[in-house]
Amino acid sequence: MNAPWKANTPGSRDPFAAFICDDAALDVLRPLVVEMGWQPEKCHKGGLRNAVQSLSITASPNILMVDLSESGDPLNDINALAEVCEPGTVVIAIGQVNDVRLYRDLVASGIQDYLLKPLTANAVRDAMAQAQAVFAAPRQSDGSGAKRHISTAVVGTRGGVGASMLATSLGWAFSMEHKLPTALLDLDVHFGTGALTLDLEPGRGLTDAIENPSRIDGLFIERAMIRANDNLAILSAEAPINTPLMTDGSAFVQLEEEFRQAFEMTVIDLPRNMLINFPHLLADVNCVVLATEYTLASARDAIRILSWLKANAAHCQTFVVANKVQPVSQEISKADFEASIERKVSFTIPYDAKAATNAAKLGQTFAEANRNAKSSAVIRDIASAIVGVSEVVEESAGKAKKSLLGKFDLKSLLAKKDKAPA
Question: What are phi and psi of 110, to 5 degrees?
Fold first, then answer.
C-alpha cells in the first residue's frame, strides 16, 4: 500500500481513538488527549485485535492510535486493520520492538508514525500534533504525476457500433503492449460489459462509489478496482435494473481525480446518455474516440456528437473510428460519410465476425484474443496515437495548458494508409 490512510476524506467521525494494551501507556496518553480537546473515554484498553473488532462495526476516527505490543506479526495485522479502517484515517502505531526495518515497513504500509514504549509525553504530543496536521492538510496534487496522465473517453454513435470493444481493447493495449498502468472505467452502470469481456466479476466498487462519493480516495480505488493484469484495473457494475442511477456525478469526478494520481492512462467507456447527463465528465479528458459505422443513423449522430464536442470539449483530441467496415457496399460510402461529418475518418476497422466470436469464447479483449488480425492492428494504431498524445503532454509540461491539446496537429500520427480492405 502507498500510504493509503493519509488521503484526506471529509466526514463526521470521532476526531481520535486509541486502543492501548497496558495501563502505564494509558496513563501517559489520557492527559494529552484532554489537552488536545478530545474525549479521554476514546482511549480503550486492548491492542490491535480489539481495534479491528471495534472498527469492524463502528466508523473509524480521524486519528487512530493502536498498540502493536501483543501482535506476533505487526505488518500482517496492520493489513487487517486497513480492511476495517475508513479511508482517510491517520494511524499512529506504538510498540515495544526497536527495529529500524520494522519502522520503515510500517511507514511504507501507510502508518503515519511509530512510537516506542515506554511512551513519553513529548513524543506522544508531537505525534498527535503531526497527525492532526496531516489530516487537516488539503489534498496535495502532484503536478509531475499529472503531466504523464492521459484520459480517453470512448463514445459510440449508436448501440452496437463497438465502443465497449474498443474501450476494453485499448485498455489492454495500453497495459500490455505499452506497459502503462491503466484504469478502465465502465460507466454503463446497469448493462456494462467491461468486466464480462475480461471474464471478471464486476464487484460493487462502482455502485459503492456512486452511493458514497466522500469515501473515494486512493485506498478505496485500491480495494474497489478489479485487476485484469499487472497494469490494468477495471471499475464497473451490474446495478439492479430496478434501481435508477441517482447521482449528481460528483463520484465520477472524484474517481477521475484518483485515477490521475494512481495510473498513467484512463479509459472511460462512456455511454451517450452519460455524456448528456454529466457533460463535466469530459472536463479532464484528453482524447475522445468516437466509434461509428457507415450507416445513416450513425452519420446523423456523429454529426451531433462532434458538434457537441466542439462546443463543450474543444480541448479534447477526437478520433473518429469507423468499425465493422465490410468490403461489400456499405449503407453509406466512406466518402459520403466523411462529407456529411465534414472531417476525415481517423481509423477504419474491418469487420471480422470470427474474431469477435473468438474473443467472446476466450473471455479476452478483442485485441488480445486476435493479435494477428488486421482489425487488431488498427486498434494498436489507435492506442499508439493516443500514447503519442501522452508524449506531447509530457514534453509540453510547464509550457502549455491542457486546452492546447485540442489544437495540436496529430496529422503525422494519423497519416497511415487506409486500413479498409480493398
Answer: 120, -5
**Same domain, yes or no, for 127 and 160?**
no
Task: Tell whether 208 and 70 lie within a shared domain.
Answer: no
User: Letter for the amino acid at 210?
Assistant: I
This model's pTM is above 0.70: no
Q: How far apart (Å, rounded) are the C-alpha atoms in residues 21 and 214?
A: 33
Q: What is the rounded distance in angstroms from the CA atom of residue 23 to the CA atom of residue 202? A: 47
Is residue 418 situated within a structural domain?
Answer: no
- The whole domain housing 70 covers 16-134
Task: Output the nine-digit C-alpha cell for 360.
Answer: 467472446
Average pLDDT over residues 324-345: 92
Please list, in sequence order, all residues whose beta carbon lies within 8 angstroms of the beta carbon of residue 368, skipping any fewer than 6 positions away: 169, 172, 176, 359
The pLDDT tens digits for 113-129 are 888 899 999 889 888 88
Please tell me the distance from the alpha carbon of residue 84 to that of residue 358, in angstroms, as a whole number: 42
Contact residues for 176 (Cβ-Cβ < 8 A; gap 6+): 229, 231, 232, 368
How far is 75 from 356, CA to CA, in rounded Å? Answer: 46
Q: In 71-228, which ranges are continuous DSSP H helix?
A: 74-84, 100-108, 121-136, 143-146, 163-172, 194-197, 205-211, 218-224
Lowest mean pLDDT among 91-105, 243-257, 259-273, 329-343: 91-105
Residues 20-46: pLDDT tens digits? Answer: 999 999 999 999 999 888 899 999 998
Asked if 173 and 218 sit in the same domain, the reply is: yes
Domain-located, residue 11: no
Residue 413 lies in a domain: no
Residue 183 host element (H or E): strand 182-186
Q: Are 180 and 97 in the same domain?
A: no
Q: Is the pLDDT of residue 369 over 80?
A: yes
